[in-house]
Amino acid sequence: MDADIIIVGAGPAGLCLAKALSGVGLRLLLVEQQELAALQAPAFDGREIALTQHSAQVMQKLGLWDLIDPQAIAPLRDARVMNGSDAFAMVIGHELGKRSELGWLVSNHLIRLAAWQAVQEATQKNQDIRLLCGVKVTGVQTDAQSASVTLDDGRVQRARLVVAADSRFSSTRRMMGISAQMHDFGKNMLVCCMTHEQPHHFAAWEWFDYGQTLALLPMNPDPQTQAHRSSVVITLDSREVERLQQLDEAAFNAQVAQRFANRLGAMRLISTRHAYPLVTVYPQRLVAQRFACVGDAAVGMHPVTAHGFNFGLLSVEALAEQLTPAQTAAADVGAPALLQRYERRQLRATLPLFWMTRLIIEIYTRESPPVRLLRGALLRLSDRFVPLKRSIAQSLSGL
Question: What's the Cα-to-Cα distance from 161 to each of 6, 81, 103, 314, rounded to whole Å?
Fold first, then answer.
């Protein structure tokens, strides 16, 4: 065989899985359709990742955390949830949890870079990771004894297990005949970094306004000006997002400040603008014969609960905790029972919050008069129910 495990996709989840499995005697093959240069120097893509405390611990264990500049890691102390034009906010404070912060905020491209660097260090140390870049998987075949992937250059690579880590729209998962429930919200998210006059106090905002959903993710002060700085997320229909992207910088600044009802004072764009379609995905299955899904290929979350990459790390941790002992015991890393244990654990960890998130979105994005009243009443009632807020705080921290 060419490898023991083939990982399709060298994004953060695929790289983290390779790092987690390196050094235990497995031969690992990473297949990535991007060119090597894109992996070595990931470009800024606008996305800031809210990491739970548990995710931070996993990244520390994998050796990623220390590869990120501490000045680029911002504490996420509290969360504020707002509805419509009401100034009231339900506050999820860090004091409801076990730490002085709920979690941390790190740019996606820095996580990707740290994951790449960690894999390079593991490769040099253990000589057990091989990378094929600039090639696409065009076919996947599995049977009781082995698995294989066919590449667009005609090569066939064989292994004991294939793992899909190639996005929520995973073509590898589809090739295995695994269907997925997808929900397209018909909206796009515009993401960028901005400075603003008023402080954020390191609190994240989730603002279910009328006609739009706004999010503010607190970052450390701008290194050049020391101005208050945040990642801004604006969810609108696709045409409105396109219009915002085409505005000149001055008009964009004024438009965003107005959308935030000037609660942050004057705002200034300090990054490029990026737009992403709002689509959630949950596969019918997470495993098949000698096949498993991790990362976004295992669940594509709505960003409102900020659990996307956190669930990705959970899947990496859960699968590695099945594969490592199997390899140590000289057992089959593609055994059905092993993969089923992984699937059960990951379903328990993700499925309830996936559907709870869908319910929240259904309630807080509808705008008929009765629902508007219900939205506000539910928010105020939830703010008074401390056990619920504590549960949310624990979910946000991942502890």
Answer: 6, 43, 34, 19
